[in-house]
Amino acid sequence: MTRPSATARWGRPSALTIAGSDPSGGAGIQADLKTFQAVGAYGMSVITALTAQNTRGVTGVHEAPPEFVAAQIDAVAEDIGIDGAKTGMLSSAPIIRAVADRIRRWEIAPILVVDPVMVAKGGDRLLREDAVRALVEQLLPLAAVVTPNVPEAEVILGRAIADEDAAIRAAAREIHALGPRSVVLKGGHRAGHARDVFFDGERWEILEVSRIDTPHTHGTGCTFSAAIAARIALGDDPLDAVRYAKAFITGAIERAPAIGGGHGPVAHDWTLSRRDLARATEA
Hints:
- The protein has helices spanning 6-10, 28-39, 66-79, 93-105, 129-139, 150-157, 165-176, 220-233, 238-254, 274-282, and strands spanning 14-21, 42-54, 57-63, 84-87, 112-114, 145-146, 183-185, 194-199, 204-209.
- The protein is α/β, with parallel strands linked by helices.
- Strand 8 (194-199) and strand 9 (204-209) form a beta hairpin.
- The protein is globular and about 45 Å long.
C-alpha cells in the first residue's frame, strides 16, 4: 500500500509519534508533539501505553492492546497522511510486531526514526526483556534512522561498549549491520563532551557540543528523535535532519526551565532562529 503524504494532500507536512504518554509533559508523546510544533510539522500521535510518571520516576504503566495501536496508525495514515514518523516506548513484543506490521503496510520505513526507549531517565525499565529481540529483528531493519544511547546500544548488541571513540564507531557499525539505513549513537552518557556518532554505511560524522551542566534532561532522547522525524517530514535527508536535531536539543537543554523535583523537562518551545541554528551547527 502506497504511503499517503499529508504534504501532497493538505499542503502541510505531518509527523507521527508512536510512543507512550507522559502525564508530566516532559517525555513521550507530549514531548514529541511539542517538538513537532516547534520544528514546523503537523503533529499526530499513536499511544502505545499510558504511564504514571513525573520528573522523579515512573510509578505505573498501562499498555494499549496491540490491535488498538494498529488501529490508531491506520486511522491517521488513511485520512491525513504521514511525512515523518518516529517510535518511542514500545514496551512489549506484541506491540512491536503490530507497529512493524503497520509500518510495512503503510510504507513508513523510508521516513521512520526508531528511538529504542528502554529505560526512563530515573532508571525505570520501559522495555520488557522479551521485547528486545522483537525490536532488533522486527523494527531496526525498517528504520531510516535509529537513535540509541550507549546503554541502549549495549542492550541491542548484548555486550558492553568501551568509552573510547574506536569502540563507539565499532558499535555504530554493528548496529548498522542489523538493518537500519543510518545510526546515531548518542554519547550523552559518556564522560567529557556530548559527542554523537552518525553512520549510514558510507558517511561518518561526529556531532559534538560542550556538555551542559543541568539536571533538566527529562525527555532529551524523545525530543532529539522527534526533531529528526519532523525535519524528515519537511524534506531533509537523515544526516541533515540529525544535524538540525542536535542543534535543537542543545538549545532546548540550555534553556531548560526548573520544573519538578527531579529530572526536569527541556525547553521544547524555544525559538531556533537561523543565526542560532548556524552557530549551534558549526560548534
